[in-house]
Every structure is written in C-alpha cells, then in structure tokens.
Amino acid sequence: MSPVFPMLTVLSMFYYMCLRRRARTATRGEMNSRRAIESNTRALPINVEIVQYAKEVLDFSSHYGSENSMSYTMWNLAGIPNVYPSSGDFTQTAVFRTYGTWWDRCPSARLPFTRTPSTFCSQDYVELAFEEPVYPTAVHILETYHPGAVVRILACSANPYSQNPPAEVRWEILWSEAPTKVNGPQARQFTPCIKQINFPTNLIRLEVNSSLLDYYTELDAVVLHGVKERPVLSLKTSMIDMNDIDEDEDEEKFACGMDTLNKQFSIVTLREWPTNGYFDKLPYELIQLILSHLTVPDLCRLAQTCKLLYQHCCDPLQYIHLSLQPYWARINDTSLEYLQSRCTLIQWLNLSWTGNRGAISVSGFSRFLKVCGSELVRLELSCGHFLNETCLEVITEMCPNLQELNLSSCDKIPPQAFNHIAKVGSLKRLILYRTKVEQTALLSILNFCSELQHLSLGSCVMIEDYDLIASMMGAKCKKLRSLDLWRCKNITESGIAELASGCQLLEELDLGWCPTLQSSTGCFTNLARKLPNLQKLFLTANRSVCDTDIEELAANCTRLRQLDILGTRMVSPASLRKLLESCKDLSLLDVSFCSQIDNRVVLELNANFPNVFIKKSFTQ
User: Fold this and answer.
1) N or C, which terminus of the chain has less Cβ within 10 Å?
2) What is the pLDDT of residues 569-597, one digit of tens each?
3) End-to-end CA distance of the chain, in Å?
4) Where in the chain is the domain with CATH 2.60.120.260?
5) In sequence order, which residues have a C-beta less than 8 Å from that of residue 134 and are 6 or more positions away?
6) pTM of the complete model
7) In 3-state terms, what secondary structure has residue 144?
8) What keywords would UniProt list here (predicted)?
C-alpha cells in the first residue's frame, strides 16, 4: 500500500478527534444540567440557606439607557424587583443595547474572528455584587420581557468588598447553554440547574446572547441562594457514569488550556524521536491549513506532541487573527508574554473583556504591543478596564498601520488620554461608545483622521457641543459611512445640516434618543434629501417625527433597510404604506409606542409586506 494512505489516515484521525471533541462539548450544557440535578439530591449538612438580591452592579458591557438616568439601565438589576411578575416593556428594568441579528446586517457590522470556540457565544455581560459570600445553591433571574438571552452564569472567587485583593482571581462557570428561542415575550423566573463550586462567592456574572430574540430582553432582578458552609457531597456512587467521567476529563483539559498557556508555550524540550513519521511527508501548507481550524487551547496542547507540530503550532502565520475574548477569565500578563514570539505577524487582535481586576498590567500590555503591534490593523479592547493613558500612547506609537480601534465601554480611560488617538491617521473605524472622550480630543481626532468610515459616539456624555462635532465631521470626514450618535444630548438641526452636506456617503445613522432634534425645523427632511444611500436610520423616541419625514424617506432613501421611529405620535398608517411600497429592501420597522399605529394596523402591514419585521412593543 502506498505510504500516502497511512499518512492521511493518521492525519484524518487527529482531525476527527478534534471534531469529536467539539461535538461533545456541544452537549456539555446538558451534561452539566444533569449533574447539577443529581448533586441537588445529595445530602447536605445542616446549613441555613441565605437568599439575597444583588446589592450593586459593578460592571457591564452595554445598556439601552442613558448614563445619567435609571431608565433601561443595568443599574436597575440592583435590589428587589421593580416589575416582576408583570410582563412588558418597562423603563425600570435592565436592557442591553442590541437584540436579534439586525446589527450584523448593517454597514457598520464587523467581520467575525475565526477560531472562536463553539462553546463561546456571549455578546454582552453584567457583573453583580451581593452582600454575603456564599456557596451558591441556586440563581434566580427575573426576566420580564422577551426572556431567553442568558447563556452563561459565572461566579468569581474575589470579594469586591474585601480590603485585601486576592493573589489569584478565579472564575467558575455555574451554568452555560447555547442560545434558545423562548416562545412568547412573557415574564418568567429563570432558574437553571447550577453546579457546585469549591469557594464562596458574592460576585456573579451573567453573559447574554440576544441574537434569537424578536426584541430587547428585559431583566428585573437576580436572586442568589447559597449557604455559608461548603456543602459536603455524599459518597453515593450509583449515579457515576463512565461517560460523565470522560466528559469531566475533557472539560478539565479545556479549562486548563489557557490556565497553563505559559507552560505549554514555553516547553522547548520535547521527547526525541528519530523522525516525525508520515507528518514529514505532508506539505507544510496542508498541515497549517488543518491546524487553522483549532482553537488556541488546542494549539497549546498539540504543540507538546512532537517537534514538527510544535513548529507548526508556534508559526506566526497561525496567529494572524487572534481572539482571546473567549478566554477572558484566564488571560494575564504571563499569557501575553508567551504569545509574543507567535504574534509577530498578527493583524487582528481581540482582547475585549480581558485584563480586569489586575490580570493584565499596563506594563504587560505595553510589552506585548511593542513586540507585536507593527502589523496590527484591527484592535478590539472593549471593556478593557486596565487601559489608561499610557496604553493609548503605546497603541498610537507601536501600531502605525492600525485601521480599527474598539474602546467600547472603556470608561476608566481618563479624558485627556484620547488625544493620542489623533496620531493614528490611518484609522477607518473608531468605537468610543460609553467612554469619557471630551470635545477637544474628539475635534483633534476628526481633524487628523480623515479616513474614518465608521464612528461610534453613542452615550459619550462629556461632549458639550455636538453641533461643533458634526460640523467638523462634515468638513473633514468625507468618507464616513456609519455614525452612531445614540443619546447625544445637544445636537440640533444646525449640526444635522452640516453633517448631511459634508458626509453624503453615509449609509447608517443612529440619532436615537436625541431630544433636541425637532421635525418642525426640517432636519429629518434635509437628511432624507441629502443622504440617498441610507440603509439604516434610527430616530428612536423622537416624538416629532411626522408623515412628511416618512414620505421624504420613501421618495429619496429607497435603499433603506432598517428604520426605528419608536415613540412618534405623528406618523399615520398611510405614510408607512408609502414607505413599505417604496423601500423594497426594508427588513426592520420599529413602530413601538407609535400612538397612531395600533395592533390592527401592524397585522394588516405584516400581511401585505411579509418580508418586513414590523415591531410593536407593549406594556401591561
């Protein structure tokens, strides 16, 4: 038999093992649930259960509400329920910024990172502190509208109220599951079966994925049940299953993959073999292609098998695009240090959610970028609370080719630090959502970064004059395609006129919750006439939007795909029909709380335009 066949057989077996491992992890949520149910039947010592609501919201990735109010903000998760058991859209609940897949279908959508493990699907998170550290026995999540977004619940070993920070911060997954579609938007109490952990906690993290939801999910409160003393498991063994043991081993290997990243990458003394078998006969490119399907922990483990595969697993070409966000809980300075030699050619890097609570230091981040920043084109740093002015200075100095920078919800960066961004003249995408960027720094950025195509300034509350900002955009940012001005507090028709005249390539514009815009000034009519390429327009909660505005959109913006006019009182069914007839590509129309659009009208429009998702929210 030709040696090619055994060679390919060995390689196929390895590839099959990797695929089998992925397939098995897909059912891990079910296995964990079964183990949790079994563990609840085991004998516990006499121990009083403590029931407590969240005392404080410590951190979160996004929210629908304003930074200066309580409506629709994550801060509503602290304390007792405000709404439950009622169902509907209530301002007293916690609401994340996005839902569904609409945000993946607009001009500002970003390309996903490859090699993301199938078990990681989280899009947003919120961290809650409780008064008493306990060994959790149950977590109740009170969902009041469109439930089903929670996909992971984690517990942390660090006590946020302790005066002595721990030497090591551990996160354990209490429960996880893939996103599921829940029938109906009604309120429910979600109580998944959680696993037992070996440390007390008063810091719980919820991670959500809203991609399957028809509207924003709303959370009212979180209840933590637990005991002060560690439960003692019984010695019953009748329920032990060999498959469970096998799954436990596999899960432990996955968990330790990033924990021991430094050890695995630093292994240089491998067992001596006379040859690498048939792998020596495979083309280098073929092995590289096969390994490109492995996750980072799998690459770490495979690097220990033989010198040839070590060489392949450490090849910088395997790390052109690298997302460490799925492993946020285990990434630290040591991890970055041992990745340095592998990331010399890296172009896309995702460090979102990583480094908090001292895991990544300013010096560790700076050392990494000094070695690996020269080829970087895209850098994702969402919710990176370790970032400070020094970090932004290093980014601008070490990443001369940077085109995309995401600092979303990096609310610990001081205002003056944003001045450094103006040095990166090649920027095409800049996300500053929920940051403390000030007007002076932003004007400098707009002046020097004339290549900008996508800009997010949502919930940037420290900007004093958005009209001046809009005027600068119109003068300098001629290539702008998407602009997020969500909840900007003071833009007027003057700023809109400057923006529309100067940025005529705009395809996406979010003016949701901008209270100073009035239809009577002609600002929306001007937008429709000057921006014919618009595909997404959000005028959320602007009560003044009227039939004239809708008819101008129908006449001039025929490429429109998404329109949000939630809350308007002046739009009639007749103008909506004109819009739907004219804009053939329209797929999302939010008319929630539009007083002239009742459920009968929505049903009629849905029947006549079945390809459009027409949303009508409610309260009760």
Assistant:
1) N
2) 999 999 999 999 999 999 999 999 999 99
3) 74
4) 49-227
5) 50, 52, 200, 201, 202, 224, 225, 226, 227, 228
6) 0.88
7) strand
8) Leucine-rich repeat, Ubl conjugation pathway
